[in-house]
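Our collaborator T.R. sent over the components below with a one-line note: 'Predict the complex.' Nothing else. No constraints on interfaces, no templates requested, no preferences about which chain binds where. So this is a plain run: every listed entity goes in together, and whatever single assembly comes back becomes the starting point for the next discussion.
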Amino acid sequence: MAEVPPSAPHSACLYRAALFQFGALLVRLFPLALLRKFAAWAGWLYAALHPNRVEIVRRNLQLLDPTLGEKNARRVYAEFGQTLVDYFHIGTRSQQKAMHLVGEIEGDNHLRAVQELGKGALIVTAHFGLFELGGLLLAWQGLDALVLTYPEPSAALTRWRADFRARWKAATLEVGADSFAFLRIAEHLRQGKFIASLIDRPHPTDSTPVALPHGRALFSTGILLLAEHTGAPVIPATMVRRDDGLYQARIFAPIFVTSRSSRADTLGFYSQQIADTLAPVLCAYPEQWYQFVPVAAPEA
Amino acid sequence: MAEITLDDVRKLLVDNCMLRVAPEEIAPDAALFGPGSLGLDSIDALQLTVGIEKSYGIAIKDPAVAKEAFQGVETLRLWLNRQPRPTPSA
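Returned assembly:
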């Protein structure tokens, strides 16, 4: 689940394997609580020095709640810093210790029910909370987890993150460069795998607008096409950090995609259903929506 | 069983891959993917397999088979015509 597509205007200098390696080293040396405080401060400082990027986040937040402003957008960076610390933490601990970060799991019965169908499943979430922890949760539940990613800014980082994910037994499949990636995904679904992906990422040609509480955003539609083609259900899920520092995992009821009057109708209808499922959690924890590229849909 | 023509393949591509060209503008020797091609991506590949299954009842489940069949417009036509097709029910 890459945070950003290759063309996104993020700080490429921060997305380097060496820096990620350094982060993984720090979490071995210092207590989690201390590093979270430091990372929150660093995130805040980054936001103060990059007002243009904060403005993009502010506009995204306004799709959820028009009262959210620049201060909330800066807090997104502070929260993101803490989430990065947790990300490094889970990859450098045993599965059991890493799972101590999860304080609450709601709806895991849906995973079991879907597993029995044997069609695999498409777990969808947003750039929200510690979504990577979802891969760990799936593996913890004994499910065969595969995470879809876009290529990172460097091949070294893509490899590093795939290796890091493998520590919690989640495999990685890179989409983007491979013209037959979606057929490979369909093959994995037929093998009963649980495939995790992010949906709040505008795709240049395959996106559809969805209504959020105060505006429209673009969701990518590839996952729904896969669901329609393979019969695999789509399961929306979220993983947010509560005030006590532990994560709340919510797994929502599976959505079975069936063809409607047209392809556009099918994609629009089910994308909205996913948006309606995720939006209340996004609105409850807006500062954990780590969406750093503009997602607002152009006016119709 | 009627042969699948070049025009059938062109229509298949335009209908399923959201190409912004008229079917007749698609050259028979055009590649589907890569530089200088029709510019299809991985989602188009999936949509194309869905379209082929719906139109001709030919299911493509193996990405390696798709890679072979989807090299170009004419390659696809020849490949489709080689595949056994289910007889339409009366």
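Summary for T.R.: Chain B has four helices and no strands.
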